[in-house]
Amino acid sequence: MTNLAFTALIKSKGYNKQRLADVCGLSKTQMSNRINGANDWRWPEVGKACAALGITLDEFATYYPVVDVIKTAKPAIRTKNECICEALDSLKKALTI
Question: What does DSSP assign to residue 14?
Answer without folding.
Answer: T
